[in-house]
Every structure is written in C-alpha cells, then in structure tokens.
Design goal:
InterPro entries: MFS_dom, MFS_sugar_transport-like, MFS_trans_sf, Myo-inositol_Transporter, Sugar/inositol_transpt, Sugar_transporter_CS
GO cellular component, one term: plant-type vacuole membrane
Strand order of the largest sheet: 1-3-2-6-7-8-9
Organism: Musa troglodytarum (fe'i banana)
Main location: membrane
Mean pLDDT: 76
Distance between the termini: 42 Å
Protein name: Sugar transporter
C-alpha cells in the first residue's frame, strides 16, 4: 500500500497550500490595512479576505463535470498553476484592485484542490486505509497554516514588514505541488476505466498496490460504472464442495454456485439460504429491531451497520475463502492469449473479448478476461462473432462444473468478494431464459460446526467437521448490461465495452436515481450542518479569549508587539489541532466515520454551552478566562477529529463513479456558500445578539447535526466504493417501500 500512501501525501499538498494561504492573509491583512488606509473602508478589507471564497465558489460550480470529462489529474495540475500565478500577482500588487484579482485567482486554485483532492484520494486508496488517507488533507491544511503562521510571525518581527512577500511566498511551495502533479501523481484508475482506458488503469493500479495481480480490482472498477439498477440482498452458506450438502437433493445442482480458492484443486460451493426475506441478514443481526425502536432511523443506516456489527476475526477460513485482493482465477488453467482491451486498440477475436494484456507480456498482464462465461448443464450453442457493441463471454473449461452454476470470483478488499454467475430458468412460454448476475459477497458468520448458529437455517445441512461461513450477497445486473441488446438474441449475457459506455459521458438523469438522490441528501445535509456548527465563529473569537486569559499580556512583557502576538496566538491554536488530527487518522478506519461523529459532536455541544454560560454569568476574570480557553481548545481538538474531515470523506465515498464529479461539486458548492454566509453574518450576529447568542445558535445546530448523523449517516469504513454505492441504491429503495 506504499504507493497509495505516497500518492495521497503528494495530492494533499494542495490542501497544505490552502492552509498556507489562509494563514498568510490573516497575518498580512494587518499591514495591508495600513498601506491602503482601509480602516475607513471595512467593505474593501472584507473583500480582500473573502475574494478567495468567492473564487472557490465560482469554480466549484463546474469543477465536477469538467473533472468527469478531462480527468482528476489535469484539474489538480491546473490548481497548482493557479496557486503559482496568484502568488506572483500578489507579490506584484501595485494597488487594491490587482490584489483583489490575485485573491480571486487564488480562490480558483483553492476551490479545485478542496473539491477534487478527497475524490482523487478515495479513488486511488484501498478500502482498508481510505479513511486514514482521506484525513491527510485536513492534517496538511492545518500543517500548512502552522508553518505559514510561523513564517508570518518571523517576518512581523522585522523592522520593515512587507506583506507582499508574505503573500508571494505561496508561489514557492506551489512549484513543488506543480512538479508532483506533473511527474508523480497518476490519473485516477476509476476515471480511466470509465473512459475505457483499461491498459492505463491496470498499470496505475499495479503501481498503487505494489503487485502485478490487480484483476479483482480491475473487475470491480468496471462494475462501478453502473448507476441504479435492480439490486437484491441474498444470503448464502459457503463451504467446501465435498462437505456442504443440501436436504433438497433434487435441487442441489441447480442451486449450487461454485467458488474457487487460492489453492489449486480446492473448490467451495455457495448455496442460497431459502425461506428468508431479501433483508433477512439485517433482521437476523438485530438491526431491523433497532430501526423499529427508532422510527425515523434510515433503513440505509441499519443496512450498513449490519455489515460492521459482527465482523469475524481474520481466521484461517477467511484468509482461505476471502483472500484480500486475491484473484480466484489463479487456480484455473488460464488462456495465455495476450489481447488488448482498451478504447484505443480494441480487438474482438472469435468468442473472446480482450482483457488488457498487450505486446509480448503474458505473466505481467491479466491472463483471463475480467468476466468469464461459465456453462451449465443446459445445452448451449457456440458463441459466434458479435456486433461491436456486444462483449462475448469466453468459456474457461477449467472452471466448468457438471451441473449447477459456476462463477468467476475475486477478492476486492475489505473482506468483500466479487463474483458472477450465469443462471437459467424456464420462461412463461417454456423456453430457456438466461440471466447474467454480478454478486458482491461479504462473510458474516464465524467458522464453526453444525452445532453453531447456522444449524437453524432452513434447507441446509452442515457437516459437523468442516469449515463454512455465512455470507451476505448483493446481487444485480452487471454494470454494462443493456437489455436492448438482448433483442439481437445473443447466446450469453449482452454486455458493452467500457469505451462504448464512456462515449455517452455524464448522464444527468442519473442524479435522480434513488440511490444517488439519497446520497446527495446525506452529502449536502452534512456539509450544511458542518458550516453552521460554529468553527468560523470560534476561530474569530479565539484571539479575544486568549487575550482575556492573559496570553497577549504575557507576550507583551517579553517584547512582542500586539500584531506579532496575535499571529503567534493563532499559530499556537493551529498547533493544538495537529495531534488531534493524527489521532483521527488512526481511528478513521478502526472506529469508523459514524462513531467519530457521534463521539465528538456531543463534546462540541458541551464546549459551546460552556462558552454561552461563561458569557452570561459573571464568574470573575480568571474563572471566565480559564473556562473559555479550555472550551475553545477542546472544541478545536474535537472538531478536527470528526466534523472537520469526515463530511469531505463521506462525500467522496458515497457517489457512483459516473456521477461522482458532479455530485461532489454540488456538495462542495454547498460548503462554500455556507462558508460565505457564516463569515458575513457573524459580525452582524455579534452586534445584534452578542457572543452568548451566537454560541447558543451554534450549539443548537450541533444538536441538529447529532440527530442527523444518528438517523441518516451510515458507516462506510473498509468498504469498496462500488459496494457503498450499491448499498445506497438498495437502502433508498427499501426506504421507499417502507
């Protein structure tokens, strides 16, 4: 995972530049006011600070669709160029108007970075550490603020302080960012797959994962191209082929699905659990009972929660049956046919469509197609040459079984397994009808014996000695399946190549799919609540609180002026955030996003209530200063652990690949508009209702946020992005039924 970590660190430098800029403008505005005599023109002063917010808001409106069109990496390159140009213009700035223009350009760079870096990291990081890596932007932003505050403080101690140099220094680190985006950062593999550039996507994944075999994840990325579709939740019992028996002997072959493990000759079979509803595994875990006790609880939350409630330990069965990122093709006789599967040089030869191996490579490339057609006990005609829009499924003789259904299966990370099956049934007219299904499998039970919890399951007889697991399965049509193609009567599933689907571009009606719409409610809602939770107000009030605590007086006694003291106080405040963000990085993929939010938001509420009480009740100067200082420090530390990074992390995880850029832009636009509203209304609110009233409103908003998170925000830790979006689709439809 070293490659993914280094890429995430390099990408997060864009957030470091944002934090750097925030700190330099906060320090340099003191000197800008003196030179341009802005004491009598507070509107211009406010514009200088806020122009970057305006620029970020403007560019965010189209950054998402453009990134879906041209890619994530080109947008990050443009961001670094904008940072560099804004630094040069600020260094020159002969008057206020040029300075305002420079701040606007700077805002463009900030908007691209803040919007797209979380998306980029989510699309390149493995599920197991995606949360930790996506906390890096928060850490980098705070780190950039601290470094910049230290620089500005040192410059403020000089006899002739030059604010132009303070602001212009931004160009130096932006050059480093530019070099990294050009020479080090790869394009997002998910975006490459969405455009049919399979060879490039595979090469990027091999670099990010540090191994040659990435066939499982490549197949997952192809499946992630779908939006909507019919998805059902089923339940299977999985065990060794020679041990798992069925008391419905006549239907044993028909219902059996064959999986292949990493050891040659070792096969496993999966049998559906009969007599249970589509959400049986949720109710069995007790989640549905929890939902009934909380009437407004979103079914989506309980659906996600059921996956995380009783995760088994990493025992021998799990490592054998569900190898992380392993390919179950490895035990089969592979056809070492090297073919090109890429939009630039797509080849269709006979009955096989190419994987993505090219040239003379064999072992270094995928040795089998990502999807393999498996024959059943039903007579099947030979698959002939298909039209350009149809992918034919190549038979893999070594995976064929006499009777039953066979699947190709791959590990995709986070304990999830990707499989496909070809099933047939008799239609109303008595003719055989085929169906090609994709399955996401997730182990639920802990290996045991027939005396365990699975003995009560109907229709399944588990042997006493032998390992087996219970698995939940998300079953749906493959992402590139088109019913219209069935009119051409192909033998086997009708599929289209990713490059054919990519030509369609972003499909705006996809935004109204139930799962996408549901995800937008979660993403936009949590962004609004984050902005109105009070972080800007507390930051604004911090220097005054620390001044009351005597910090500024102490600094004055050692010869530091008021302007320098204010900057140093802000630097110390920022420094307090870094250990808390580091702890959040550690917990993000262990405790989870939802847990951190539900744990830290009550502390935010308590801190704000203490600030309200401290400003309403006369407690004496010392007690007031101590309570205020402690409350502010606790508020900062808890905010950067939860409500600071998690909204952006969630928004980068919950949308399908095809509309992820558009949806993240909608959420980011909400963020920037909320930021502008809070920034401009804060002085007005301070004058009308005072500090106690402002912090009281913030406490109410945090309480609303706590309720919203509890009822609406699911836990997404450790789950592949494609599985998350599939769960949103299922949860949205379940909510509509309820």
């Amino acid at each position: 995972m070293r490659g993914a970590v280094l890429v995430a660190i390099a990408a997060s430098i864009g957030n470091l530049l944002q934090g750097w800029d925030n700190a330099t403008i906060a320090g340099s505005i003191l000197y800008i006011k003196k030179e341009f005599k802005l004491d009598s023109e507070p509107t211009v002063e406010g514009l200088i600070v806020a122009m970057s917010l305006i620029g970020a808001t403007i560019i965010t409106t189209f950054s998402g669709p453009v990134s879906d069109w041209v890619g994530r990496r080109p947008m990050l390159i443009i961001s670094s160029i904008l940072y560099f140009l804004s630094g040069l213009v600020m260094l020159w700035s002969p008057n206020v108007y040029v300075l305002l223009l420079a701040r606007l350009i700077d805002g463009f760079g900030i908007g691209l970075a803040v919007t797209l870096i979380p998306v980029y990291i989510s699309e390149t990081a493995p599920p197991e550490i995606r949360g930790s890596l996506n906390t890096l932007p928060q850490f980098s932003g705070s780190g950039g603020m601290f470094i910049s505050y230290c620089m500005v403080f040192a410059m403020s101690l000089m006899v002739n302080t030059d604010w132009r140099v303070m602001l212009g220094v931004l160009s130096i680190p932006s050059l480093l960012y530019f070099a990294l985006t050009i020479f080090f950062l790869p394009e997002s593999p998910r975006w490459l797959v969405s455009k049919g550039r399979m060879v490039e996507a595979k090469q990027v994944l091999q670099r990010l994962r540090g191994r040659e075999d990435v066939s499982g994840e490549m197949a997952l990325l192809v499946e992630g191209l779908g939006v909507g579709g019919e998805t059902s939740i089923e339940e299977y019992v999985i065990g060794p082929a020679n041990e798992l028996t069925d008391d419905h002997g006549a239907t044993a072959d028909k219902d059996r699905i064959t999986l292949y493990g990493p050891e040659e000759g070792l096969s496993w079979v999966a049998r559906p659990v009969k007599g249970q509803s589509s959400l049986a595994f949720v109710s069995r875990c007790g989640s549905m009972e929890n939902q009934h006790s909380v009437p407004l609880m979103d079914p989506l939350v309980t659906l996600f929660g059921s996956v995380h409630e009783k995760l088994p330990e990493m025992g021998s069965m799990r490592s054998t049956l569900f190898p992380n990122f392993g390919s179950m093709f490895s035990v089969a006789d592979q056809q070492h046919k090297t073919e090109q599967w890429d939009e630039e040089s797509l080849q269709q030869e006979g009955e096989g469509y190419a994987s993505d191996a090219g040239g003379c490579d064999s072992d270094d490339n995928l040795q089998s197609p990502l999807l393999s057609r498996q024959t059943t006990n039903v007579e099947v005609k030979d698959i002939g040459q298909q039209h350009g829009s149809i992918m034919s499924m190549r038979r893999n003789s070594s995976l064929m079984q006499n009777g039953g259904e066979a699947v190709s299966s791959m590990g995709i990370g986070g304990g999830w397994q990707l499989a496909w099956k070809w099933s047939e049934r008799e239609g109303a007219d008595g003719k055989k009808e085929g169906g090609f299904k994709r399955i996401y499998l997730h182990q639920e039970g802990i290996p045991g014996s027939r005396r365990g919890s699975l003995v009560s399951l109907p229709g399944v007889d588990i042997p006493e000695e032998g390992e087996f697991v219970q698995a939940a399965a998300l079953v749906s049509q493959p992402a590139l399946f088109y019913k219209e193609l069935m009119d051409q009567h192909p033998v086997g599933p009708a599929m289209v190549h990713p490059s054919e689907a990519a030509a369609k571009g972003p499909n705006w009606p996809d935004l109204f799919e139930p799962g996408v719409r549901h995800a937008l409610v979660v993403g936009v809602g949590i962004q609004i609540l984050q902005q109105f939770a009070g972080i800007n107000g507390v930051l604004y009030y911090t220097p005054q609180i620390l001044e009351q605590a005597g910090v500024e007086v102490l600094l004055a006694n050692i010869g530091i002026g008021s302007a320098s003291a204010s900057i140093l106080i802000s630097a110390l405040t920022t420094l307090l955030m870094l250990p808390s963000i580091g702890l959040a990085m550690r917990l993000m993929d262990i405790s989870g996003r939802r847990f951190l939010l539900l744990s830290t938001i009550p502390v935010l509420i308590s801190s704000l209530v203490v600030l309200v009480v401290a400003n309403l009740v006369d407690m004496g100067t010392v007690v007031h200063a101590v309570l205020s200082t402690v409350s502010v420090v606790i508020y900062f530390c808890c905010f950067v652990m939860g409500f600071g990074p998690i909204p952006n992390i969630l928004c980068a995880e919950i949308f399908p690949t095809r509309v992820r850029g558009v949806c993240i832009a909608i959420c980011a636009l909400t963020f920037w508009i909320g930021d502008i509203i809070v920034t401009y209304t804060l002085p007005v609110m301070l004058n009308s209702i005072g500090l106690a009233g402002v912090f009281g409103i913030y406490a109410v908003v945090c309480t609303m946020a706590l309720v919203f998170v509890f009822l609406k925000v699911p836990e997404t830790k450790g789950m592949p992005l494609e599985v998350i979006t599939e769960f949103f689709a299922v949860g949205a439809k379940q909510a509509a039924i309820d």
